[in-house]
């Protein structure tokens, strides 16, 4: 199809949001795994199941401060029947006693210290009274009371963490406890950020004439980092077919994002470049904002065409680029936002067949849709607490209707 044909006909196909996402999911595969040190594992995604090679704990240990004893020596003990046991010493954490506890003997023991051979219970300090070389027991115990048993936490051979898990701080601690110091994770995707437009200048350059600052590279870079990807800004590319084409061809990253020049205007070259170099699978989606969004592939490299309007860029990233980055890291696509519920204090109008992403504020009175139109009002995303999604089968949402808010 010639470029003039695209301009005459508008978008080649206007896809449903779910349909476009399904096309994307069919083509994206996870990146190859790599092995990294445990201390670098926070927020990384496991590429393999982790099975314990040791027991945790690997020895019986005291769960409280008190006295290690034979449980049967405490039977019948009470405040009125204080049973005396011979105190033979003390065990501290990280130490061990070099003799076996005999009947009617006790050893002073601290939390976490190894239980001496022969002992099978620990009397809490509150239920014992020392007098000289004896300790008097005031409470009966069953075997292994107040004892952390071998493998009580994790057994050798247990499946500890599964492939596809994004690692949290406590996960790193569990891995350390089973002596896993190197972990297999999916590689973090690199993302080329190509900003196009003769009107763009860098944030540190003076504004003259009709120039505007390239803010999208910062927004999209931040969104990429939040999902574990590594953004690589390629600078501002002028509106020239060959220059944009060369920038795309030279981008060796796992993902390429082109902002601006993605629609069907006189200088919107990106869709035609993707058609020339590879496959343009989606160009135009029934959503607001960001209807000119598109994507395709050059061989196996996904190329996303993101509108230049800042709000559209943010919405398009969340809808399509984010899921691709998650899939590459072995994750299931999901918005990376917390969700809250509330009631609308004003109506939201929409149109059947289109998905609307509506910026809202959460107030004491309820969920308030912002009175903002236009996809270029970037500050509306900072004034908003989040957004509400209006389904394609809905003509809108009514005042007082309960909605789910994705909180930024």
Q: In words, what does this structure look like?
A:
With 408 residues, the chain is an alpha+beta fold. The protein has four domains: 3-32 and 187-328, MoaB/Mog-like domain (Molybdenum Cofactor Biosythetic Enzyme, Chain A, 3-Layer(aba) Sandwich); 34-54 and 155-186, Molybdopterin biosynthesis moea protein, domain 2 (Alpha-Beta Complex); 61-148, Molybdopterin biosynthesis moea protein, domain 3 (Molybdopterin biosynthesis moeA protein, domain 3, Beta Complex); 338-407, MoeA, C-terminal, domain IV (Beta-clip, Beta Barrel), CATH 2.40.340.10. Helices cover 20% and strands 31% of the residues. The protein has a six-stranded mixed β-sheet, with no helix packed on it. Strands 16-13-17-21-20-18 form a six-stranded mixed β-sheet, sandwiched between helices. Strand 8 and strand 9 form a beta hairpin. Helix 2 (17-27) runs parallel beside helix 7, helix 4 packs parallel to helix 7 and helix 5 packs across helix 6 (270-277). The two termini are 40 Å apart. The model is unreliable at 1-12 (pLDDT under 50).
Please describe the structure with a list of short key phrases separated by commas or semicolons.
8 helices, 408 residues, Molybdenum Cofactor Biosythetic Enzyme, Chain A, Molybdopterin biosynthesis moeA protein, domain 3, elongated, 4 domains, Molybdopterin biosynthesis moea protein, domain 2, six-stranded mixed beta sheet
Backbone CA Rg: 32 Å
Q: What is the strand arrangement across the widest sheet?
A: 7-4-6-5-9-8
- Provide a count of the helices: 8
The count of domains is 4
Please estimate the helix content: 10-25%
Which structural class do the helices and strands define?
alpha+beta
Largest sheet: 6 strands, mixed
Mean pLDDT: 92
The beta-strand count equals 28
Beta-sheet strand percentage?
Answer: 25-35%
Distance between the ends: 40 Å
CATH first level of the largest domain = Alpha Beta
CATH architecture of the largest domain: 3-Layer(aba) Sandwich
CATH superfamily name of the largest domain?
Answer: MoaB/Mog-like domain
Shape: elongated
């Amino acid at each position: 199809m010639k470029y003039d044909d695209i301009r005459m006909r508008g978008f080649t196909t206007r896809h449903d949001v779910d349909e476009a996402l399904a096309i994307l999911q069919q083509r994206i595969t996870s990146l190859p795994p790599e092995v990294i040190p445990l201390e670098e594992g926070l927020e990384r995604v496991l590429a393999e199941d982790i099975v314990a090679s040791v027991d945790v704990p690997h020895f019986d240990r005291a769960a409280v401060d008190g006295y290690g004893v034979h449980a049967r020596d405490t039977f019948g003990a009470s405040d009125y029947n204080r049973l005396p046991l011979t105190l033979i010493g003390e065990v501290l954490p990280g130490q061990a006693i070099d003799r076996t506890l005999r009947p009617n003997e006790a050893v002073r023991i601290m939390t976490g210290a190894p239980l001496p051979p022969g002992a099978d219970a620990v009397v809490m300090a509150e239920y014992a009274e020392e007098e000289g070389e004896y300790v008097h027991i005031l409470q009966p115990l069953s075997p292994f009371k107040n004892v952390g048993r071998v493998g009580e936490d994790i057994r050798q051979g247990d499946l500890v963490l599964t492939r596809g898990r994004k690692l949290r701080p406590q996960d790193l601690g569990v891995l350390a406890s089973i002596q896993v110091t190197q972990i297999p994770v999916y590689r973090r995707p690199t993302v080329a950020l190509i900003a196009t437009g003769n009107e763009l200048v860098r944030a540190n350059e003076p504004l003259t004439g009709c120039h505007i600052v390239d803010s999208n590279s910062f927004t999209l870079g931040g969104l990429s980092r939040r999902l574990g990807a590594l953004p690589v800004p390629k600078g501002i590319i002028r509106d020239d077919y060959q220059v944009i084409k060369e920038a795309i061809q030279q981008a060796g990253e796992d993902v390429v994002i082109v902002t601006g020049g993605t629609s069907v205007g006189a200088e919107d070259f990106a869709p035609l470049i993707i058609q020339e170099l590879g496959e343009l699978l989606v160009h135009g989606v029934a959503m607001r904002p960001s209807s000119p969004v598109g994507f395709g592939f050059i061989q196996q490299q996904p190329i996303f065409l993101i509108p230049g309007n800042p709000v559209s860029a943010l919405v398009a990233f969340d809808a399509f680029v984010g899921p691709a980055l998650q899939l590459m890291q072995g994750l299931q696509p999901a918005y990376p936002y917390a969700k809250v519920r509330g009631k609308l204090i004003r109506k939201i109008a929409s149109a059947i067949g289109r998905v609307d992403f509506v910026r809202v504020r959460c107030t004491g009175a309820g969920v308030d849709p912002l009175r903002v139109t236009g996809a270029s009002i970037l500050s509306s995303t900072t004034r908003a607490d989040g957004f509400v999604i209006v389904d394609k089968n809905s003509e809108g949402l009514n005042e007082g209707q309960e909605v789910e808010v994705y909180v930024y």
